[in-house]
Design brief:
By secondary structure, this protein is an alpha+beta fold. The protein has helices spanning 86-92, 106-122, 128-151, 161-204, 208-215, 221-234; strands spanning 6-22, 27-42, 45-58, 70-76. The protein folds into two domains: 6-102, no CATH class; 128-234, no CATH class. 49% of the residues lie in helices and 23% in strands. The structure holds zinc ion (ZN). Zinc ion (ZN) binds next to loops.
Length: 235
C-alpha cells in the first residue's frame, strides 16, 4: 500500500553578519548568521514550520562556527556585503575603524578548497529530469539497434522480432538512464565547485593562480579542475 510522503527538512535563511574566529581558516572571518527553521511538508506542501534558532558559518569557507567564537552585535544582512571587506564590517559593528584586511594565508585557501571538496562529494542531486531524459532517448535507440541486429541475424536464436525489439527497448532505456544520471551528477558537482570558488575569488579578491597551485595537492579532480577553470577565466 502506498504511504503518504512526508519530508522534514531544515531551512536556513540568512539573517545577519558578525565577525568571529573560524577554526578551519585559522583567522578572524566574517560570520554569516542564519535563522534555522524545521519545515515539515506533505507531498512537498509545507504544513508546519518550527523555529530552531540560529546557526553561524564562516562566510569564506562556509563551514559551521561555534557561536561562542562569534563577537556581538550581529548587524542586519543588507548593511554589509563581503566585497566591502572585513574592516568595514568591524566598523559597522561599532568596532575599531581603519583596521587592515587580514592577509590570505595558504591555510585559509586550503580551508576553502577542503570545504568545497567535501561539499561536492556529499552533495545530493535530484536526478529526476536528467535521468528521465536519458531513458526517453535511450529506449528508441535500443529498439532501433536491436531490430537492426535482428535483420542482420545477430539477435539471440529462438527470440522473434517482437521479443528482440522489447529487449532492445528496455536495455536502451536502462543504459540511457544510468549514463544520463552519471553525467547529470558529475555536471552538477563540477558546477557547484566552480561557483563556490568563483564567488570566493570575487568577494575576497583571491590570488587565483595561487589557489589553483594549492588545489593540485588535493585528490579530488573536481576541486583541481574547478580551481584551474577559475584561474583560466581571469586571464
Ligand atoms: Zn572559515
Amino acid at each position: 500500500m502506498p504511504g503518504i510522503r512526508v519530508d522534514v527538512k531544515n531551512r536556513r535563511t540568512p539573517a545577519g553578519w558578525a565577525v568571529g574566529n573560524c577554526p578551519h581558516c585559522g583567522q578572524v572571518e566574517a560570520i554569516q548568521i542564519d535563522d534555522v527553521t524545521q519545515v515539515t511538508s506533505i507531498y512537498w506542501i509545507p504544513v508546519y514550520r518550527r523555529p530552531l534558532g540560529q546557526e553561524c558559518c564562516c562566510d569564506f569557507c562556509r563551514r559551521p562556527v561555534d557561536p561562542a567564537e562569534v563577537a556581538k552585535p550581529v548587524i542586519d544582512r543588507p548593511l554589509w556585503s563581503p566585497p566591502e571587506g572585513l574592516p568595514q564590517l568591524v566598523e559597522k559593528m561599532g568596532g575599531e575603524s581603519g583596521l587592515a584586511a587580514p592577509p590570505t594565508t595558504d591555510r585559509r585557501l586550503r580551508s576553502l578548497l577542503d570545504a568545497v571538496e567535501s561539499e561536492a562529494s556529499l552533495m545530493r542531486v535530484d536526478l529526476g529530469p536528467g535521468a528521465t531524459w536519458g531513458a526517453v532517448l535511450g529506449a528508441p535507440v535500443g529498439l532501433l539497434l536491436s531490430l537492426l541486429a535482428f535483420e542482420v541475424g545477430l539477435a539471440v536464436k529462438g527470440i522473434d522480432r517482437f521479443g528482440t525489439g522489447m529487449f532492445g527497448l528496455m536495455t536502451g532505456g536502462v543504459v540511457g538512464l544510468v549514463a544520463s544520471s552519471v553525467a547529470y551528477f558529475r555536471r552538477a558537482r563540477n558546477k557547484l565547485a566552480r561557483q563556490r570558488l568563483a564567488t570566493a575569488c570575487e568577494n575576497y579578491g583571491l590570488d587565483r593562480a595561487r589557489l589553483a597551485d594549492l588545489a593540485t595537492e588535493f585528490n579530488s579532480e573536481v576541486v583541481r579542475r574547478a580551481a584551474a577553470t577559475c584561474r583560466d577565466e581571469q586571464r
